[in-house]
C-alpha cells in the first residue's frame, strides 16, 4: 500500500486540540437589544468558526461489519473516535441552533431545532455503544460466531427468495385456471337462476345479510303458514271440527266478504303463535346453515332433536295445536304426549307442522341477528288502512269502500333500518281509528 494513502496517525496533542476547539460552546441565553440585530444564521451554512460549525461534517457511520473487517482493534477504535468527535461537533451546533430559535421566540424553529438536537443525541449514543463493544469485536471467537451467523442468515434469505419465486410461478400458472372457474360459475348461476336452490328447499345465509334475503325468508314463512292453514282446514272438514266455534283469537266483529275468507283468520292465528313471544336462546345464528341445509325439514329436526330448532318445534306445537283440535282430528292426544316427553312423532301431520316451523324459525333467527335488528310490527283492528306499511289480502275492497279499516293482521310486517316490509292485513268495514 502507498504510504501516503495511509491514514495520518492521531497524536495526543492533535486530539486534545480538537476536543478543546469543539467544547467552545457559546450560549445565546440573553435576548439582543432593539438596536442589536441577530447575527446571520451562520450555523446553517457552517460559516462561524467560533461556534465550531466548521468542524461539522456528514460522517459515514461506522457499522459492525466495518469494524469486523479491521485487522487491528486500534484502527477500529480510531474510526469510532473520529465519528464520535464529529457527532459531538454536530451536537454542539444543534444546541446553539436550539438556543437561537428562542431569540426571537419562534415556535416552528424551536420544534425543528429540538428534533435535530434529539437526533444528534441519538447518534452520539449509538457511537458510544459502538466504542464500548470494540474490544468484544476484536475477539476472534466472537468474530467467528458472528461470521457463521451471517452465513446462516444469508443462506436462509436465499432459500426464502427461492420459495418466493416458486410460489409466484405457481400463482402465475393457477391464475388462468381460477379465471376459467369463475367464468364457469357465473355461467352456471345465470343458467340455474337465483331461486333454483330455494325451490329445492336449500337455503344458506352469508355475512352481510341484505333486505332481499330477509324478504325471501319472509315470503317463505308466509307461504309455509298458508300451506299449513289449508292443511288444518282440510282436516276440520274431515273430522267435523267446527271452525266457527274454534278458539282462534280473532275479533268476532270482523265482517267477511265471503265465507272462504275465514282462512285468513286461521293464517293469522298460526302466524301469531309461531312468530310471537319467544326466548332469544332459541335462535342462534351459528346453527342456521345446518338446519337449512337439509332438503327435508324433518331430517334437520331429527339430526339434532334437542337443538334450539327442536326446542322451538316442541314449544310451538303445544301452543299452536289445542288439545280439542288434536282430540277431534285423531281421537286421542298421542301426538301431544309424545312431544311433551321430548320426542318428535314421524307422522304426516307433525311433518307438515315442522315444515312451517322451520320457515318461521329461520325468519326469526335472521331477524334477531341482523344489524340493524329487524323489528316486527302488527296493526290493531279498526286502524285505517295505509299503503305505506300495509298490504291487503283482498285488493278489491280498497276501491269499493272508503270507510274500510283493518279487521286483523294476517302476517306481521318488519322494519329494518329505513326499509319496511309491509304487513298483510284483512280489511273489514269496522269503524276506523287513527293509526
UniProtKB/TrEMBL annotation:
Xref: PANTHER family: PROTEIN GRAVITROPIC IN THE LIGHT 1
Organism taxonomic ancestry: Eukaryota, Viridiplantae, Streptophyta, Embryophyta, Tracheophyta
Biological source species: Brachypodium distachyon (Purple false brome)
Single GO BP term: response to red or far red light
InterPro entries attached to this UniProt entry: DUF641_pln, GIL1-like, GIL1_IRKI_C
Annotated spans, Disordered: 33-69
Pfam families, alphabetized: DUF641, GIL1_IRKI_C
Ranges where the DUF641 domain occurs: 75-191
Residue intervals of the GIL1/IRKI C-terminal domain: 376-426
The name this protein goes by in its record: Uncharacterized protein
Amino acid at each position: 500500500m502507498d504510504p501516503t494513502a495511509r491514514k495520518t496517525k492521531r497524536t495526543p496533542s492533535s486530539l486534545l486540540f480538537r476536543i478543546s476547539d469543539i467544547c467552545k460552546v457559546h450560549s445565546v441565553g440573553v435576548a439582543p437589544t432593539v438596536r442589536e440585530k441577530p447575527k446571520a444564521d451562520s450555523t446553517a451554512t457552517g460559516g462561524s468558526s467560533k461556534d465550531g460549525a466548521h468542524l461539522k461534517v456528514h460522517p459515514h457511520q461506522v457499522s459492525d461489519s466495518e469494524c469486523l473487517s479491521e485487522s487491528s482493534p486500534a484502527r477500529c477504535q480510531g474510526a469510532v473516535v473520529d465519528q464520535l468527535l464529529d457527532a459531538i461537533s454536530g451536537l454542539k451546533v444543534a444546541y446553539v441552533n436550539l438556543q437561537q430559535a428562542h431569540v426571537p421566540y419562534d415556535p416552528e424553529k424551536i420544534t425543528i431545532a429540538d428534533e435535530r438536537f434529539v437526533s444528534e443525541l441519538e447518534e452520539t449514543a449509538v457511537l458510544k455503544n459502538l466504542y464500548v463493544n470494540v474490544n468484544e469485536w476484536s475477539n476472534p471467537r466472537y468474530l467467528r460466531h458472528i461470521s457463521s451467523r451471517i452465513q446462516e442468515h444469508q443462506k436462509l434469505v436465499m432459500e426464502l427468495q427461492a420459495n418466493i419465486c416458486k410460489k409466484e410461478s405457481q400463482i402465475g400458472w393457477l391464475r388462468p385456471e381460477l379465471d376459467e372457474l369463475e367464468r364457469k360459475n357465473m355461467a352456471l348461476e345465470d343458467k340455474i337462476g337465483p331461486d333454483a336452490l330455494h325451490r329445492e328447499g336449500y337455503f344458506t345465509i352469508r355475512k352481510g345479510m341484505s333486505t332481499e334475503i330477509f324478504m325471501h325468508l319472509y315470503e317463505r314463512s308466509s307461504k309455509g303458514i298458508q300451506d299449513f292453514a289449508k292443511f288444518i282446514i282440510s282436516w276440520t272438514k274431515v273430522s267435523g271440527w267446527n271452525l266457527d266455534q274454534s278458539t282462534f283469537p280473532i275479533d268476532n266483529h270482523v265482517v267477511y266478504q265471503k265465507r272462504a275468507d275465514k282462512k285468513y283468520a286461521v293464517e293469522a292465528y298460526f302466524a301469531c303463535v309461531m312468530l310471537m313471544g319467544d326466548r332469544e336462546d332459541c335462535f342462534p345464528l351459528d346453527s342456521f346453515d345446518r338446519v337449512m341445509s337439509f332438503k327435508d325439514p324433518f331430517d334437520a329436526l331429527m339430526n339434532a332433536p334437542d337443538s334450539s330448532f327442536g326446542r322451538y318445534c316442541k314449544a310451538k306445537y303445544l301452543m299452536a295445536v289445542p288439545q280439542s283440535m288434536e282430540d277431534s282430528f285423531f281421537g286421542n292426544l298421542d301426538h301431544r304426549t309424545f312431544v311433551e316427553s321430548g320426542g318428535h312423532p314421524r307422522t304426516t301431520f307433525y311433518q307438515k307442522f315442522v315444515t312451517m316451523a322451520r320457515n318461521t324459525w329461520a325468519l326469526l333467527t335472521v331477524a334477531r341477528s341482523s344489524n340493524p335488528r329487524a323489528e316486527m310490527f302488527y296493526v290493531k283492528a279498526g286502524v285505517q288502512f295505509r299503503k305505506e306499511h300495509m298490504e291487503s289480502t283482498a285488493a278489491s275492497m280498497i276501491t269499493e269502500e272508503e270507510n274500510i279499516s283493518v279487521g286483523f293482521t294476517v302476517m306481521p310486517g318488519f322494519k329494518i333500518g329505513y326499509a319496511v316490509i309491509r304487513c298483510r292485513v284483512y280489511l273489514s268495514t269496522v269503524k276506523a281509528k287513527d293509526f
